[in-house]
Write a structure and sequence with these properties.
This protein is an alpha/beta fold. 50% of the residues lie in helices and 13% in strands. It binds adenosine-5'-diphosphate and magnesium ion.
Amino acid sequence: MFAEGYIGIAGIIGVGKSTLTNELAKALNFEPVMEEVSGNPYLEKFYSDMKKYGTIMQIWLLNHRFRQHREFIARISLGKIRGVVQDRTIWEDTIFARMLNQHPEKIISDLDYNTYLDLFDNMVLRELVFPQLMIFLDCSVETAMERIKMRGRSMEKTITADYLKSLQENYYQFIEEMEDAGVRILRIDWETFKPTSEVVRLVHEYSLKPSSFTKWVRPLRKPPQETKAQEKVNV
Ligand SMILES: Nc1ncnc2c1ncn2[C@@H]1O[C@H](COP(=O)(O)OP(=O)(O)O)[C@@H](O)[C@H]1O
Ligand SMILES: [Mg+2]
């Protein structure tokens, strides 16, 4: 099932999701649903000790975003709002969880990762409604590093290019999995920012394409694979 009027914005740290979420929501007269970095009580601790806080922060995030998800889906279906643009979707949390599990240092242990996936399957998955359109913003790791530096959040100083590279590879795989399941994906090259009006035009164009959505997307169970070269929309 997917929700008419639900647009998700996906992408690695620093690519420009939050900025576009606000702008696009304004342009479409939708409600922005923001990722609240300052409200996350674990984030700073996580960046200073990933192994200690990795698992519990993923549980916190999943719970937080699940609550957010259910609330806005209810408001859309009751007709209280026309739609939402969401700054990072709940599925993307599973990218981080898997990446931390696959890290050579096993930041999240196999046991903890299995518990996380089991919780996701058993308590979260069946309640989820898919976006009408998922926009994937993509830029190089170097550019994302520059943007992270530019916004100057002190806790993000420990983010390395290797961490972002691995995140990006996991995102490519995730986007293919969503697409295989029939979710409409709009890839946009965000190496340079585009005017919001261009994004609005693409949103309208892509939303008219038929969706072949057929099945629930289980998060990221496939073993890691070579990422295919990414097709991008040039606007
Ligand atoms: N369209 C844009 N125009 C100008 N600056 C932008 C734009 N999008 C993002 N930025 C800047 O790039 C940095 C990262 O953007 P942000 O939206 O916070 O990324 P994300 O939410 O993906 O981590 C911020 O400093 C932001 O001000
Ligand atoms: Mg953000």
